[in-house]
Amino acid sequence: MKNILILIFFVLSCQNPAVENKSYGIDHESRMSWWREARFGLFIHWGLYAIPAGEWNGKTTHGEWIRTTAEIPIDVYDRFIGQFNPVKFDADKWVQMAKHAGMRYIVITSKHHDGFSLFDSKHSDFDVMSTPFKRDIMDELATACRKYGLKMCWYYSIMDWHHPDYLPRRNWESRSEDGADYDRYVAYMKNQLKELIDNYGDIGVLWFDGEWEGTWDHDYGKDLYDYVRTLQPDIIVNNRVDIGRSGMGGMTSSGGYVGDFGTPEQEIPATGIPGVDWETCMTMNTHWGYNKNDDNWKSSKDLIQKLADISSKGGNFLLNVGPTSEGLFPQESVERLGQIGDWMKVNGESIYGTSASPFKSLSWGRCTQKVASGGSRLFLHVFSWPESGRLVLPGIYNKVDRAFLLADKRKDLEAFNDKDNIVITVPKTQPDPFNTVIAVDLIGKPDVNDPPVIDERQKIFIDKMSVSITTERENVNIHYTLDGTNPSSKSPSTSGGVSITETSLVTAQNFRDGSPVSGTIQELFTKVDPDQGVEIAQAKRGLRYQYFEGSWDRLPDFERLEESGSGITPSIDISKRSQDNHFGFVFEGFILIQEKGVYTFYTDSDDGSQLFIGDNLVVDNDGLHSMTEVSGSVALAAGYHPMRVTYFEKNGGNQLNVYFESVKIQKRLIPDNLLFHKKYGPPLGWLDN
Ligand code: FHN
User: Fold this and answer.
1) 209 CB under 6 A from ligand 1?
2) Which tens digits make up the pLDDT trace of 272-282?
3) pTM as predicted
4) 7, 48, 149, 644: most buried, per Cβ within 10 A?
């Protein structure tokens, strides 16, 4: 009877900490379970832009953005309405191709940035019912999805280049902004979303996009997230409903932004992030919308290996097709969906419902894993086949119950432990040149050679500090040193951490029966003297601010610029501006530190920002970027400390949040009651101490 550890996966609440403060009657785990199981979906970008198919006035590189990239006036673009007649559209065929490919859900552009609704909307005449086609494509697709067991999901663009109430206008178009009412546009969006959620059966995901322009903000995003969840409580909503997405990397920066999963685009994160749901969306060639001249197709082998790579990091893969104006998938897409499907037919269980690899990296391929009755099952996705006939699984100590090719389950492969590795004897030639999957049933949960974790975000301390040193591995002892030398089984051991009073280069390693069973981990913790505060007579609440207008790619030297406004502000906020783009701020004054300690400051901004304490640049978050959070730590004595925050916004979203934390203060926006300025301070410019 095997001494079997029944593996229990504690699936971390795979969400950003602040994503959900209401349950709407269904908990997050239940809501996300089908999506995590699915792992693989079809993205469809289809609309009027399929008619020009990427070409305009002799330029052939346009895509779904053609209205903007070709600067087509709205009355000219509207003429496509009279040409949209995809007579070869067949929802069943589309859904069957997706199903064969192993895809479990379909996300289609119900409305892209051009504002055209691919569904019968009572709130817009700029919809499919105004075209010669006069059929509700979304209804036909939703019906086919139900028929073949796929989840129907909607892409919906917040940005709308057509609706008269949407702002801002494109900077190249002459259409007046007069009479535009953005809140009326938001109400229009909600009316359409109600149609999309109420009229087409159960909807899996609302995939928002186009959230990056300055008119959309966190309040709108949070409200829209709550609105759609109220309409269908178990619906899943991506993070582009709000403004917390960090660029094309797609993950949500902290700070309370909503969204159930991150949305990396055209890229695969270097590693997974435990406890965070994310989905990479990607084109098969280089355009989302159909471009008849785009022959830059990714191979089926590349796409299958990308699917394995993404799954091995705990993510979902949303692979795009851009149908033609006739309603057909391009033949190259059809071929790839077919070949992916052939591979998934044999190897799908190595993708569906799997979780991330227990290995940091594998030279020959990827790994996914699942709980299995005997402990755990690893799926080895072998891209590079070993000429030696021996596949080495490095740094793992489990006993193997059995190993076999997923394509031939009846025949066991030889597998044995060799020191720190598992070795599997494999056939001389690679069975599947795209990606051969070998299943390995382990006894117990994967026992890989991960070193202990030294988990302290602050690397400086004043008097003493407790450094946590932990491991999730079983049946090991952690040994450590404080002088940077490699530990031995004779070094001090710990099961939780160590307290230090001097600068220490903490080095730790896992041991079993006196021998190392992991590499080492090392972190330097430095003892520092706290910066002393300054005396200020007549301290008044609030910071001095200066407001500037201009266009920069990095933070300018504000002291050389003419201010456009100034005054005193109770908090660090950028609302005192007269435009949404091309502006900057300087906030100067003092922060009152009530207790000596190490403080970590954060700026979360779109675009760049910096934070100084005294002359010390503590946070450097400069540059052109979407919402991005950067932090830095500093040791401070109690008292008033000069603080300066600078910020600029060029184009698109604009947001600045400044947080701080210490061992006694949980991360929070710096409260107003800690912000001061000198009553009769010098003219603005760096405050002398
Ligand atoms: O601007 C869109 C683009 O057209 C496409 O829809 C992609 C797909 O995720 N999203 C935006 C670009 O990030």
Assistant:
1) yes
2) 888 899 999 99
3) 0.85
4) 48
